[in-house]
Amino acid sequence: MSGVKLTPTGKFSQSLVARKISDFHTQIPMRISTIILLLILLGISVGSANADIPANEKFQNNPVIAIVDGKVLKMDDIKSAQMHDAMEQLYRMQIQALKRKALEQLAVAHPELTKEAPAKVTEEDIETFYKTAMNPESGDFETIKDDIRKYLINVSRLNFIEQQYQTAVDKGWVTAFLSPPTDFHLSAEVGDGDFFFNENDGADRKIFLLEFSDFQCPFCQRVQSTLADLRKRYGHEVQFGYRHFPLPFHKEAVSLAEASECARDQGKFWELQALFYDRTSQASDLNRVIGLAKTVGIKRINEFKQCWMSGKYKARVENDIRDGRAIGIQGTPTFILGLYDKDQKIVTGEMFSGAVPEERFSMSIEKFLKQIRSEDKTKSER
Questions:
Q1: Are 290 and 282 in contact (CB under 8 A)?
Q2: Of 145, 219, 236, 328, which is the most exposed, with the fewest CB atoms less than 10 Å away?
């Protein structure tokens, strides 16, 4: 995800809104189950580019974990969707720890790295963020400005660490062997999921980002701005789809999912979907959902109410849940990003969970785009 950039004077650049509210309040919490992965003995190697490090001491994402009846067994041979999800979260922790440790060790030999300091956060910065990136329902300015200040200070610090670390890498002072988990590919049916882009608009979208979400899930709400940015950036190459995965402890999530499907009957699924996430407190009050439906332009409101109250799309939502569980989904949001088979309506690719940063999505999208271009080039040369 693009970070909030501060100019030397402390004022926000135009990239401010890219961060938006998606990372405000809290970052993605590590699940307790992730701790289990610490037993896997994942290592980090940091040192000079000229250091002579034995190959068997370098970090490996897919190490040999056993020999069974004379045959090698690797980590990928036992990896499940849940393990991959946990590994992704562990990697995010490790890469941040690596950057901090590397800069700490370089501070003595290369003091120029510490001459500058993170940009200060000004009152103007706080007001700008409140006006451009905050949801009106988050509270009045005076109530939350201290929280915004803490958040922006943390963002500034992380940006500074990233900048200094990249400088160290560019100068050859750091050679990092840590890398994201190896790809875990699976296939997911698009089913009755709604598509963001019209399939008949002439664009040749061979990549699909399929989302399984819950309207009352805070992490689902936070990732929406990231998805909006990705649609603007990759709208001609990537199709976006939405399926429901309401969690049992979110009281109104199933009902809201069914309501959004009724909005789809009148061509307003994505409009109501966006409003549900933008106004989470109103969407949780079922008596106010009708008002939200009117707000997005649903004209035949009685038809919408009848559709919703009758449970017309109960089976569709239940089918989404079944399909999600079948591929190992346990929480929300969960994404399947990969190549799209239009005939089979199947996405084959990688699974991501949580409020995934934009750069992580982009890394995967660019990888699939490169694969597609390579295959197209090979075909044209035959």
A1: no
A2: 236
